[in-house]
Amino acid sequence: MLAAVLKDFNKLVLEDVPVPQPGIGEVVVRIRSCGFCATDYKAIKGIRRNVKFPLIVGHEPSGVVSAVGVGVKHFREGDEVICQPSGFCGLCRHCKEGNTHYCEHAFTTGGDGPEETWNGAFAESMRTPETSLLHKPASVSFDAAALTEPLSGAWKGVIQYSQMQVGDDVVVIGVGGIGLLCLMVARAAGAGRLIAVDTSAYARANAMKLGATHAVDPSAGDAKKQVYDILPDGPDLVVEAAGPIAAVRLAAELRRRGTRWNVFGITTHETFELDGGLTHFLEGRMDASFGTTPLAMQKAVRLMEAGLVDPEKIVSHRFALKDIHQAVEVMGGQERNKVIIHP
């Protein structure tokens, strides 16, 4: 089969590799769509270094079951499926508490985080455990289904962890792909005023199309003043979905008493300062969110099936697997949202 194999940083090679075979409790999925995540791009370009070569990246897939291993009970050949990229043992303390993304024996199919990494979905087929599969609703496209994992992360951060309430005034800092999904979840959950903060005019325009009530350009002046001109009483919830440490600092600056804020986008080990006394008397709450869980994945599927969130609306580019190098170039540009690979 054709696969994009990462041999080293900045060395992504298209080549024929053996079709994977399912082990006990595993299936092989013929990939129909796979989202191109920023963490995949960072692995390819060497921005993140926790990569063991060779590796097939790509961890946001949907497809059709093409082979099943011994002991598989709930999926058959021909089933249309969504793949959760994070694998878990189901037996450790964290798994038994429902926090499968903390699993002591976790692995990932083509993604980031756990030390153990299986080959991912920038290939025609991928091997994965049956426990990491969900049935794809017929009403959901393969492209939308491929974005179940990032949508589930947005639901987990905004709703489950930060407990957004109907009518809350929400600020989303950074409205690239994941920020737009956070914004769309907040819109579906009944946000009041919904402010998109981004230095990119392209990103701000997309946010306004997808439900933001206001857009703020922090490069145009005092971002806090711009936000407070719109929300004189300050925001109920601030979601940092940008990544740079400056976005985290802005989230902290936007707090008023009772503000909840979620450090969602940053994954690099950088520091910021908090005034301890001010933080105490503001009595706000900081959350963070990484990865996904079976619960969050199921919630994302329900959002799509009910027509409350259509993640396909954030797709800006689609490429065949053979054109993966063009996709990498687009990922390095400014005017793009979600890129989809079609193996």
Polypeptide structure, described:
This protein is globular. Strands 3, 4, 5, 9, 10, 17 and 18 form a seven-stranded mixed sheet that branches. A six-stranded parallel sheet has the order 13-12-11-14-15-16, sandwiched between helices. Helix 4 crosses helix 5 and helix 4 (148-161) crosses helix 10. It folds into two domains: 2-136 and 310-342, Alpha-Beta Complex (Quinone Oxidoreductase, Chain A, domain 1), CATH 3.90.180; 154-288, 3-Layer(aba) Sandwich (Rossmann fold), CATH 3.40.50.720. It has 343 residues and is of the alpha/beta class. It contains eleven helices and 18 strands.
Q: Estimate percent helicity.
A: 25-40%
User: Mean of residue pLDDT?
Assistant: 96
CATH superfamily heading of the largest domain = Medium-chain alcohol dehydrogenases, catalytic domain
Strand count: 18
Using the coordinates shown, work out and report the CATH topology of the largest domain: Quinone Oxidoreductase, Chain A, domain 1
Order of helices and strands: EEEHEEEHEEEEHHEHEHEHEHEHEHEHE
- Return the structural class: alpha/beta
Radius of gyration: 20 Å
Helix count equals 11
The CATH architecture name of the largest domain reads Alpha-Beta Complex
| General form | globular
State the distance separating the first and last CA atoms.
Answer: 10 Å
- CATH class of the largest domain, anyone? Alpha Beta
Biggest β-sheet strands, sense, barrel:
7 strands, mixed
**Total domain count:** 2
Poorly predicted parts: none
Beta fraction: 25-35%
